[in-house]
Amino acid sequence: MYPLLRKLLSFNWVIVVLMTALTVFGIVVIYSCTHKNPNPVYAEMWNRQAMWAIVGGLGFLAASLIDYRWIKLGALPMYLVSLVFLILTLAIGVKLEGARSWLRLGGIQFQPAQLAVLSGILVLALFLSHFRKLPPLHKIIGCGITAGAPALLILKQPDFGETMIWGPVVFSMLFAARIPYRYLIALVLLLAAAAPPVYYMGLKPYQQARITSFLDPEIDPQGASWAVNQVMIAIGSGGWAGKGFLAENTQVELGYVPSTTVPNDYIYAAIGEQWGFRGGVLLIGTFAALILTCLYVAYRSADDLGMLTAVGITALIFTHTFQNIGMNVSILPVTGVPLPLISYSGTFLAVIMFGLGIVNSIWIHRKALPGAQKSSWPA
Description:
The chain has 14 helices and three strands. It has helices at 2-9, 13-34, 40-43, 45-65, 71-92, 112-130, 136-155, 160-176, 181-202, 205-215, 226-237, 267-300, 304-328, 346-364; strands at residues 94-96, 99-105, 108-110. The protein has a three-stranded antiparallel sheet, covered by helices on one side.
């Protein structure tokens, strides 16, 4: 019992407090933008989000108490299972809004793509930490194969937003693994060169329309650009202090911002409209504090495995946050990426909380074991 109590007392309470605050706030925001929806599927979203938060909380606790070094045993099986789930999703998955991204097994509907990203991070961390002496090009190829298999299956669904997540995550882990800058620059240039072919041959027409409307919001104001423009109006109308919690006659309540996507893609629009600029800044500041805390855990980790895992999970949270808020304020095209801990997305909420539990475990077990090796932090 004593070692268990010692672990509980050794929690990184900054992560616990910030994660809990964001999760509770997310439930409140989901309630505020769906409670008047006549469709019970949407009106009860906040309730289902709360239940997923409990599941995620239990996952966070379990991941925190288990030594993260057990990743060596569980990472690869988890990764292979996620690939099987992705294949099943393409074959028998539930099709929603033009994408076959959801899988229903045993009465539970979940999104395997998000599980695949987390398991991919664990396998990448294991690969890069175990094969430290491989030539840089071999490391890049190994990471490309590891990330490429699930990324292609996710793109096939098609879920372009979740596919894009892999790029920053893999890049950040390669950087943390001290891959020489010339290789990283070449990789960025290669991805940039691949963008036009992907746009014309890899994207569906509605996905191309999202990018076109982002570049020119006035090109189709009653069609592809409608939601983007209404989201900007909603955020701008909130002003400094916002219209208030459960305010009436808002863009969100009146349905100008599509009610089917407000709890997911456009949750930040609801926050900006009700809580204003100061609410949005406070939210971004909370995410910044969480991300910086996770990076500090990576810095203080005992070995390369812990450092790379923490960096990968931090990059996952940062990329989702940047993409979601970016598409709400029109600095990025709409990609359908949820805001971590805030947007309605049961699977993703549980995955992020479990991932933060692993980061917490890295903090708890930061005392180096005999023979453990850790590379110097990138300069």
